[in-house]
Amino acid sequence: MTWETVIGLEVHAELSTTSKIFCGCSTAFGGEPNTRVCPVCAGMPGTLPTLNRLVPTYAMRLGLALGCSITKNSLFDRKNYFYPDLPKAYQVSQLYAPICRGGCVEIEINGQQKSIGIHQIHMEEDAGKLIHGPQGDTFMDFNRCGVPLLEIVSKPDLRSGAEAVAYLEKLREILLFLDICDCKMQEGSLRADVNLSVRRPGGPLGVRTETKNLNSFKAIGRAIAYERARQINILEKGGVIVQETRRWDDDKGSSSGMRSKENAQDYRYFPEPDLLPLRIDDDWLAAVQRDLPELAHDKRQRYALNYGLSPQEAAVLTSHTRLAALFEELVAQCGEPLESAHLVTGEILRLLRQTNTLPEALSLDAHKLATLIKLFTENKISRAAYKEAIEAVFLHDADPAAYIAEKGLQLQHDDEAIHRAVQAVIQDNPGAAAEYRAGKEKAFGFLMGQAMARLHGAGDPASVKQALLTRLR
Ligand code: ZN
Ligand code: MN
Asked: For residue 116, how far is its CA from the centre of ligand 1 (angstroms)?
C-alpha cells in the first residue's frame, strides 16, 4: 500500500515598505544592531502603534491578484508568547478577521494545471533576531522588529515536494510583479514553513508536523522528502507521529524536534486593544484594484498575442520584473517589439552574465538602446556594428550617435562609393571574376568579402551584392 503526502505551506513575506508597520523606523535590511528602533517597535510600555497604510494596501494587492475575498472590517489580535526576539512578549497579528480569505495560486505540474487553495492571508509584525556569539553568549538585534509581514497560509492541497516548490515559485513571481516584496530568501524576506502529514489514499488526515528554518527552494524540497520518509518509517513500524515543530538543518540534511506544536489557544490570542478595527471602504479597494500591476502570467499572454513573441521569449522576458520593464520601455520608444525582445533576451542577458550583474542592478538608458534598434532596423548600421554599440552603451553608457560616427560604423548606401569599390575588386581579382562568370558560385563569396573589406565593413550588404552582380554580368 502506498502513502499520500499532504502538505500545507505558511509563507511569510516581508513587505517592501520603507518604514515599519506601526512606527516610522526604517525597514532596510541589516545595519548596525539596534539602530533602527524606537520606543514603539522596541516594545516600551505606554507607546501606541499607528498602522502604516501601505501594509493593508499591499495585502489587498496580493488578495486581489489571488482572487481572495477582502475583509471589509479586519481586526488585529495579540499573539502572546515569550521569546527574547519579541520585546513586547506578544506579536500583533490577525486571527479572527484576517484581511484576505479564500483565493488560489495556479501551478503547473507535469504539464497539468492545478489550483492550490489559500486559507487566509494576514498582516503581522516581524520579530527581532538572536545573534549567537562565539563564547556562547546571545545578543539581541531589534532592527527587524516591526517590519511588516504578510503570512500566506495555503490549504493542505499540495501532494509533493515538486508541487510545493512550484507553488512557492509562482507565489514569488506574483509578489515580485506586484512589487510588494523583494523575495530574497537569503535575507529572510521570503520564508516558508512546511506542514506535512502522510495518510493512506482517501483515508483520514494524519498527524502533521511543522518544519521551520528553510532558507532555499532546494532546502524545502529536501526537507519534504526527509519528513515524508521519517513519518512513513515510524508509521510502518507501528509507531505514532507526534505533533511538533521541527528545525531543518540543511548541512546535515535532517531535522530535529524543537518543541511540541502549539495550538491557537496556547497563544492566548485576544483582540489588540491599541488598534481600531480596520475599515476598508469601496473607494480604497477600487483604487487598489485600478492600480494593480500586471502579473507575469498576463504579460506572457499579451506579449504572445500582441507582439507575436514565442512562449520561450515571453518567458525569458518575464523571468525578472526589470527585464520585462526594459522590454516594455523599448517597445514604447522604438515600436519594434520583435527586435526589442531579441535585444533583451540576447545581447542584454549575455552582457549581464559576462559582467556578473543581476537583473535588478541593471541600469540602462532605454532611449539609447531604442535609438540603436531604430538604426539597425532601418539598415543604417550592420549587425556587427549594432552589437558593438549595444556593448558600448551597456558598459560605458556611450552615446549611440556619437559612438557610431566616431567609429565610422554607418552603413554605406552611397552608390558612387560602392560602385567604385566593386569595380576595383573586379579589376584586382580577374581570376575570381572569370571563375564566377564560368559558373563557380563560390568565387562570388570571395569577391563579396573583398568588396566589403574595401568598404571597411560599412557597405550595406544588399547594395554591395547588387552592384557586384550587375558588374559581373
Ligand atoms: Zn520603531
Ligand atoms: Mn506568522
From this structure: 36
Q: Is 21 helix (H, G, I), strand (E, B) or coil?
A: coil
Ligand 2 geometric centre to CA of 106 (Å): 23
Average of pLDDT values for 150-164?
A: 97
The full set of domains in the chain, from first to last, is 4-284 (no CATH), 294-407 (no CATH), 415-472 (1.10.10.410)
CB contact at 8 A, 31 and 143: yes
Burial of 337 (0-12, 13-18, 19+ CB in 10 A): middle
Predicted TM-score (pTM) of the model is 0.84
Residue 190 identity (one-letter amino acid): L
| Closest ligand by atom to 36 CA | 1
pLDDT tens digit sequence for 209-251: 999 989 899 999 999 999 999 999 999 999 999 999 999 999 9
Taking ligand 2, which is a single-atom ion, which protein residues have CB atoms under 5 Å away?
A: 151
Q: What is the CA(123)–ligand 2 centre distance, in A?
A: 9
Q: What spacing in Å lies between the alpha carbon of 373 and ligand 2's midpoint?
A: 49
pLDDT digits (tens, 9 = 90+) for 175-207: 999 999 999 988 899 999 999 999 999 899 999
